[in-house]
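Show me any protein, fold above all:
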Amino acid sequence: MESRRRDMELLSNSMAAYAHIRANPESFGLYFVLGVCFGLVLTLCLLVLRLSCRPPLRPPARPGHASEDDEDEDEDEEEDTIDRAVSESLLPVTEIPLESHGPGDGALAVNVFASAEELERAQRLEERERIIREIW
C-alpha cells in the first residue's frame, strides 16, 4: 500500500511540475540556463584549480662541461630515447619543449599521440576536415 501511495505522489508531483512549467515557460527557461551556466563555471573553476595546483616539471640537470659535439650526440640519444619511450608507452603523453616556456608559466610536457598509428589516424582526420572545409 505504501509503494502505491509513493507512486501516486510521484505522479501527482510530476503533473504539478508539468502544469507549472506550461504556465511559466520563461521562468523554466531562466532556471535551465542558470543551471547550465553554473555547471560550466564550476567546471572551469575546477579545471583551473587542477592545472594551477600541479607542481611545475623540472628539466633534467645536465653537466655543464660538455663540448658541442658531445651535446649533439647527447641530443640524438635523447631523441632516440624519447621516440622509443613514446612508441612503448601505453598512455598518451604530450611533449612540449620546455625551452620555449618560462620556468614559472605552468607549461606541461605531455605527448598527445602514444603511437604512430594514432598520429597517422589524426593526420587522416585533419586531411578529411580540410577537404570538407574546401568543399563547403
User: Anything to note?
Assistant: Helices lie at 2-23, 25-52, 68-88, 116-135.
